[in-house]
Amino acid sequence: MTFWLFKSEPDTWSWDDQVAKGAIGEEWHGVRNYQARNNMRAMRIGDRGFFYHSNVGKEIVGVVEVCRESQPDSTTDDPRWDCVYIRAVIGLKQPVTLETCKVQPGLEKMVLINNSRLSVQPVSAGEWQIICELGGIAP
Fold it and tell me: Could you tell me the maximum CA-CA distance found in the chain, to the nearest angstrom?
């Protein structure tokens, strides 16, 4: 299994919105960055990801699962852009803030800290473990 992080502005699409979609999940559309698109193309069904509230909150609030692999983004006719579908798995008992990540040993190389503008990014197995522990959930 590979791990990821999906960033969303909560006033546009929040963790609560994601949870409300249930098992059907939601198309993670609108990504217009080649690196983020390539990350989605690498995803497989069952991969897990953190759901991160950007701009407002700046915190990891939940875990999602890829439930449909890369396909054309329905919000554009441009064939360069893809999306995946994700569904909510579990909310973190304790949100993990960006500030916490910045000072937490073992997270120094995390993409969230070093490339904060990338909306869909990889997370290492070690980073996954640390953040799950900080968030009060089993990895």
Answer: 43
Cβ neighbours around 125 below 10 Å, total: 11
Following DSSP, what letter does each residue of 89-110 receive, concatenated? EEEEEEEEEHHHHHHSTT-TT-
Q: What is the pLDDT of residues 72-91, one digit of tens each?
A: 999 999 999 999 999 999 99
By residue count, the chain amounts to 139
In this structure, are residues 28 and 39 in contact, taking their beta carbons and an 8 Å threshold? no
**What number of other Cβ atoms are within 10 A of residue 1's Cβ?**
10
Q: What are the chain's domains? A: 3-135 (3.10.590.10)
Q: Which DSSP symbol is given to 19?
A: H
Query: Per-residue DSSP letters for 30-79?
Result: ----HHHHHHHHH--TT-EEEEEETTTT-EEEEEEEEEEEEEE-TT-S-T
Q: What is the pLDDT of residues 108-128, one digit of tens each?
A: 999 999 987 899 999 999 999
Residues 6+ apart with CB under 8 A from 63: 48, 49, 50, 51, 88, 89, 90, 91, 92, 132, 137
